Amino acid sequence: MLLTAEDFRRAARRRLPRLFFDYIEGAAGDEVTAAANAAAFGRIRLQPRALRDVAGRSTAAQFLGHRFAAPLMLGPVGSLGMFRAGAEAAAIRVAHRAGIPICLSAFAMTAPEDLPEPPQPGDGWQLYVLRDRGRTAAMVDRVASAGFSTLAVTVDTAVSGLRERDIRNGLRRLSRPGPAMLADLLAHPRWLADLAAVWPPRMGLARGWPEAGPGYLEQAAFLAGQIDPSFGPAGLEWLRGRWKGRLVVKGVLHPADARLCADLGADAVVVSNHGGRQLDGVTPAVEALPGIVAAVAGRVEVLLDGGVRRGTDVVKARALGAAACLLGRTQAFALAAAGEAGLAALLQHMQAEIDAAVALMGETKPGALGPEHLAPAGTEAG
Ligand SMILES: Cc1cc2nc3c(=O)[nH]c(=O)nc-3n(C[C@H](O)[C@H](O)[C@H](O)COP(=O)(O)O)c2cc1C
Questions:
Q1: Do the domain assignments include residue 379?
Q2: Separation between Cα atoms, residue 47 and residue 61, nearest integer Å
Q3: Is the pLDDT of residue 379 over 70?
Q4: Which of 75, 188, 215, 362 has the highest local Cβ count within 10 Å?
Q5: What pTM did the predictor assign?
Q6: Average pLDDT for residues 312-333, to the nearest whole number?
Q7: Are 34 and 277 in contact (CB under 8 A)?
């Protein structure tokens, strides 16, 4: 039975060509930060209270200006549709049915205009600011016209992280596979048959960009090559002026950067190290969280991603001041392994874990959790 993040990870490893499994799971350098993100949750100790009335409970949470069924969001994951045909549309449907928001990746295969269902309040699109501000503005306008209320600008990708699994696997040569890659692809016939139905893939945002090339891989490489490494405070100010909806800055780890985002009019920051996929050796996201929550002092909402695998991780992040957590790899593995039903099952289980943890902590809603619900490792409450 597929229930937990780890179940879906294992099932995805069986179903996907090695090249794609490694692309999802892999990270920069020695992958120390990627592992540390999850391990850091394991070191946090909950401090439950007994003898409390927890009969009337809800996992509902308020963030991004709306009330959702749980403090959870599906984060932006590029290339989802390469892991299973129609995975992005499936993710949108699952999020809507589960009552949580989703943020589509700039690298999505779906175009903002082609969603299977209209965006719900809180749903977002992730943006990279490009050197060409005219092209960036056009993307922003398309996202607004499609009805999204949230724009998440990713700021931890001035250059692409060096992910050695992808270099060794030759991910960039996917359109011209050599014998080893072909053998890997052909050894996964269920994946191959599924993808054949939607081949050749395209990148939604690249519609109308003939210079980006004809297929997804060229288009994604084109977009990645356009990301502006000089994007700074003036760029963020420009974006704030251009986008009238909720602006989220994703990829903040330093309290001073979070304060800057607040000063420049962002509505929320995502404390994130991109799942360890960019700079290896940086602080685990959840360890950076308390400093950022203190630094912004409620001026912007603080979300978190990186290493979130269980409902109890969400509860811990909530106790440290995160309004909600985003799911990266776990979302991709659930979709790759078991499609729409898989992701729905994963979210249902995580929500049940959140409910049980909140109750067992002696509270009735995630919003009631705070630092007083945590104990330092190895100590007992006084
Ligand atoms: C396969 C994959 C693709 C990703 N693509 C994007 C992307 O296009 N834009 C972005 O801002 N973050 C992207 N991310 C980063 C996630 O949004 C998120 O920050 C990270 O995965 C969180 O860590 P976790 O995987 O441990 O949950 C991607 C992550 C993965 C695993």
A1: no
A2: 21
A3: no
A4: 75
A5: 0.98
A6: 98
A7: yes
Q: Is residue 373 part of a domain?
A: no
Q: What is the CATH number of the domain that holds 58?
A: 3.20.20.70
Percent of the chain with pLDDT over 70: 98
Residue of 96, 254, 274, 373 marked active site: 274
Q: How confident is the model at residue 319, as a pLDDT? A: 98
Is 226 a domain residue?
Answer: yes
**SS3 annotation, 123-157:** CEEEECCECCHHHHHHHHHHHHHCCCCEEEEECCC
**Spatial contact of 7 and 331, defined as CB atoms under 8 Å apart:** no
Q: Looking at the domain assignment, is residue 310 inside a domain?
A: yes
* pLDDT tens, position by position, 198-228: 888 999 999 999 999 999 999 999 999 999 9
**Structural domain harbouring 186:** 5-366
Domain total in the chain? 1
Rounded alpha-carbon distances, angstroms, from residue 168 to 18, 22, 173, 218:
11, 10, 11, 19
Identity of the amino acid at 158: A
**Residue 175 reports pLDDT greater than 90:** no
Q: Is residue 339 within 6 Å of ligand 1 at its C-beta?
A: no
Q: Which residue among 6, 105, 278, 283 has the greatest number of ligand 1 atoms within 8 angstroms of its CB, and so is best to mutate?
A: 105
